[in-house]
Amino acid sequence: ALAPGIAAILLRIPLVIHESDTRSGSTQKFLGTFADRILLGFAECKEDFSQHKRIEVIGHYIHPIYTEAAS
Asked: If we measure between CA atoms, which residue out of 14, 10, 7 comes closest to residue 36?
């Protein structure tokens, strides 16, 4: 994730990152300082990006095939 993120920064391409874990790693924290938008899988991760204004908790996508199999 670091190399494409740096390329986006250098080329001035809008950068959107998605953190799918409850705690973000050093790469995501670094890229978060340059990101135009940060999407989170868990609300607990918001504190890792407290300086950023465009944060949205979107959760995780679960394909319908898995929810249909359970019913």
From this structure: 14
Which spans in 1-71 are helix H? Answer: 2-10, 26-32, 64-70
Going by C-alpha positions, the residue among 42, 35, 37, 46 that lies closest to residue 21 is 42
pLDDT tens track for 7-54 = 999 999 999 999 989 899 999 999 999 999 999 999 998 888 888 889
Whether 20 and 41 have beta carbons less than 8 Å apart is answered as: yes
- Separation of alpha carbons 42 and 58, rounded Å: 8
Does residue 3 register a pLDDT over 90?
yes
